[in-house]
Each structure stands twice: as structure tokens, then as C-alpha cells.
Amino acid sequence: MAAPTFSVLGADLTIKGDITASAELHIDGNVEGDITCAGLVQGESSAIHGAIRAQTARLAGTVRGGIEVSQLVVLKTARIEGDVKYDVLTIEQGAHIDGRLSHGLASIETEASLTLVS
Fold first, then answer.
1. Which residues, including other chains, have CB under 8 Å from residue 59's CB and lie 6 or more apart?
2. CB–CB of 113/89 below 8 Å?
3. What is the pLDDT of residues 43-57, one digit of tens each?
4. What global pTM score does this model have?
């Protein structure tokens, strides 16, 4: 069995175009395009302008676009503009989300159940 892999996009990189990865991505740079991956870790100085689809995501930077993630952690430094669909959501106090929150990735919108972490 192969060890899990991950890819890192450094702070000095700007990518224009969609990214698809079967592994986990750690993004510190800027992406203008949609991201589909197994897991996403976003650094504080990172900016993503496009949709995100992943099993897990830990967001700390700026996101402008829709998000569909099974397990989502939004850190206090995150700034999100777009609708968010999730199964499990944790939001640190101080994070900013400007968009609709929808529980369940089966497109069934319910009242958002949030976990606030201080």
C-alpha cells in the first residue's frame, strides 16, 4: 500500500486554471480556478478564486467561490465569499463567511449546525 501523498503550492506561486488532485493539497499561493482534491489545507496568505470540492478542508485564507466539503474547518483568519455545503463544520471565532451555509452534500438545505471554537 502506497503512503499518502500531498502537494504543496508555495506562497510565491500563482496558478491560473483548474487543479485536480487525488492527494492532499497545501496551498500558500494564489489560485484562479476550481480545485478538486481529497484534502485541502489553505495558508493564511493564500487566495483562491474558484470553487472548492474536497473530502476535507482547513481554510485560513481568502476564498471567493462555492465550497462543497464533507469536513470543513474555517480558521479565524479565513474570509469566505460564496455558498458553503458541508457535512461537518467547525468555525473559529473571528472567521468571516459571506454566503449561504447548507448542511449535507446531497443538496438538501437545512438549518446550519455550527460549532464555534474560541
1. 40, 42, 67, 72, 73, 74, 75, 78, 80
2. yes
3. 999 999 999 999 999
4. 0.85
